[in-house]
Amino acid sequence: MDADALYQDVYDKYCRYINPNLAKLMGFAGFGVEMVGDGCYIIDHEGRKYLDCLGGYGCFTFGHRNPRIIQAVKDQLDTITLSGKAFFSKNAADLAEKLANMAPGDLQISFFSNSGTEAVEAALKFAKAATGRVKIVSTNGSYHGKTIGALSVTGREKYRKKFEPLMPGACFVEYGDTAGLSAIDSETACFIVEPIQGEGGIIVPPDGYLKAARQACDKAGALLIFDEVQSGLGRAGYVFACNHEDVAPDIMTLAKALGGGVIPLGVTIFTQAIYDKVFGENPMAHTSTFGGNPLACRAGLAAMEILQEGEVVRNSAEMGKRMKDGFLAVQAKYPDILGEVRGRGLMIGVEFTMDEVGELVVAQLMKRGVCVAYALNNPRVLRFEPPLIITAEQVDHAVSAFDESLAETAELLVVLA
Ligand SMILES: *Cc1c(COP(=O)(O)O)cnc(C)c1O
To answer: May I ask the CATH class of domain 67-309?
Structure first.
């Protein structure tokens, strides 16, 4: 099949069997069929090579098909893949120990699942069971997933409306606003918050916000949940984004990068005290058939080994600064179009001053071999979350492609005006 025919075949099947409206949007933005992932690049059906600055919303922290992770998974395929469930699994045991050693504070027990939203579901259930309370405080603009529980605490009307009534008890406060934390009271089971909002548009809270959240929860006897599904594991230039303020939650969720960009894997990490309350009488209080399977945990183990070596986290901080400085220089050239550049590590958002510019710039960047996307909850914001193994040369390529894309978009806007 030639390249055009292959594209047409896949596109038609998406339109008939997967998601016609989404397929049209992707086609319009110029996305082809992904054929090969390799390090920081994705190669499409026409052999075009894209620098992956979207990074699967942060899944490809270790690059596409990181050789060490691929080898570990290949080795695992020759012994046992999914769990027989009655037996112990060495990989789950080793990974849980590693995560407990990495995680801040008293986080010690791991519940493994297969995605971010499942990790959040577990966190919410544990918070309710451990406190005997139902009120859950979350933040506007947050993203915690799209299953019913996680959606109930996701701060975006657009995704919730059609599915209401959702889980009762959720309420929302302004993200980053310390005064809003007064909503955390003696009825509150937990406050769930992203240390940096991802889908909300890469929103970094003011320093002291996480500490204030910790204090508010302690005062109210509520639990603090950090959803680090996107911000964790080196993304923000720290092992966990909450390390920036040196604040530890009672429950933390991880997913996206946890499986090393090779196998899906999620985890909910929590304290022994919470374990006793939730699982004390019933060790089967919460379970998952596929969660913690030997194959996924092997991928996770290889990935966490790389993370612990430190180079990836250092590079995230260093290359993140290089990229952000580059974008700030571009912003100085086009202040009318580009409003703000923000983020930490390689979790960077650029916000345009008007709607629709984002889409144009995405298409321009694609044309120049750089793959990005806008934030789900905030289409004015383009997100840059490349693999943390990105080189200075690749960062500079992304920045100059962005510069050229804005120049061309600016011209286009003048013509259209
Ligand atoms: C992506 C994301 C989720 C949901 O993860 P899925 O694997 O898509 O279910 C939850 N929380 C945050 C912060 C996320 O970025």
So the answer is: alpha beta
